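Loading example: each entry is read as two labelled lines plus one structure line.
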Amino acid sequence: MTCTETRDLFSALADDALTPGERAALDAHLAGCAECRRELAAFGRTVALVRAIDPAHAPAGFVDRVLAAARPEPWPRWLARRLSAPWPTLPLGAAALLLVAGLAVLLFRAWPEQQQTARYQSAPPGPAAPAPSGETAPSAASDSPQADASRDAGASATATREVAPAAPPPAARAPEPPARLGDVAESKNRLEQAAPAVEPTAPARDAPPPALEGRRAKVDSIPTDTAKASTRRQDAAPLSRTGAMTGILAAPPDVTAQLRAADTSVAERSLIELAGRLGGGQTGRRIDGGRVVVELAVPREAYAQFVREATALGPLSIEQQATDRPLLSVAVTVSN
Amino acid sequence: MREALGADPPGLLERLRAGDARAFEELVIAYQHRVYGVALRMLGSRAEAEEIAQEVFLRAYRAIGAFRGEARLGTWLYGIASRLCLNRLASPDRRLARGDEALADVAAPTPDAASAAERAELDAALRAAIAGLPEERRLVLVLRDVEGLSYEEIAETLAIDPGTVRSRLHRARLQLKEKLERFA
């Protein structure tokens, strides 16, 4: 074995990646070549220097920033943003809707009985009565259709949770005293379909800018992350604010669609993600006759794109109502 | 060098594919330092490394449904990170003035009681030597000697032959050795 051939094996030697044959030949050459022994020593020191480099640590708050970025912007915030900029150019129709919505709030406030009912109906579920969750569903699995439906619901609840946590319901976060919570939630329910524009509270959970976050003292991030995660899960549970959950009938959607897909929870997630990507978002979710109905808001100008991409998820049938609203309400029943 | 990659956390892949939101969080917690680490050593700027590391996880989040499990989660994430780093390095609008931050926290321990000045000089030389390696060699060196991956794991990560890993790594180390001759 020549000196060049020997030195070509140094790297593999440092990684203990030589075959027994290579190792024997190397040792034989080194035994008789002082020059190669010196080269090997220098090579070994270089490798040791590189390996002494400390592995880097992601900055504090990294996990939270990734999780926030992975979830589509919650639609109340999207609306708030959309409405804050183009006020002067709002179409007349939307302005009229706002007027009607405002009137509804006034009427509602002047009607204590209605408020009382709302408070009762829209109280967020406490820890004693948790919503069905993905973790518990599989344990209840059996072959009966009922169990299928509950498993389905469980899986989809998980999917909802995945996109939902950044948008806690106002009832869970709003700083008002309890007596007003029902008030806010109720007016929201009544107005959601007619005038999504009047979302009363858009809880912004903006992450602090990365620059600031990076300057914070390093902390052990894992326990913090875990704690935050559990908070998020609790927030996510009462997200669905549709008729089925609250007992209040919502207005019929602009578009009613049926989507057939082999994996309903994947299809549901894809729909929500799609709506988010197109500038809309999820507005609700219910189970109708054992099938999941996803309720979405889709900007009118992106509707054609929505249909195109939704068709790619599986066979899609659509019923449309004539409407000139800028934001279409779309209810998609997902089944397999 | 970082500890060995090891097997995926048990059950994590299945839960990710089932759409479990908590599973994604666990994935980010488990691999954040590795993904950020390779980006930092490749790009040399903490801000840019965080941006790329975030993008790695967002891509993983979107693509998990299509992930067939032919690779481990760890090598899959390292693979996405590697591609994004190489793309970023190749992009024409990348600012040229950067890199000093890259190994700022290298802190190579010296076996003897060398003076602080000598150590600082060595750190700077090591930093410059690594930054001066051709990108593909630097990537293999970082994955092996900083991130602690095996040849097979690097081959899986970069979708190249283990023989190619071995030769790139050897060339990278030889080049470093020449540049660090007077320290080594």
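Chain B has one domain: 12-95+112-179.
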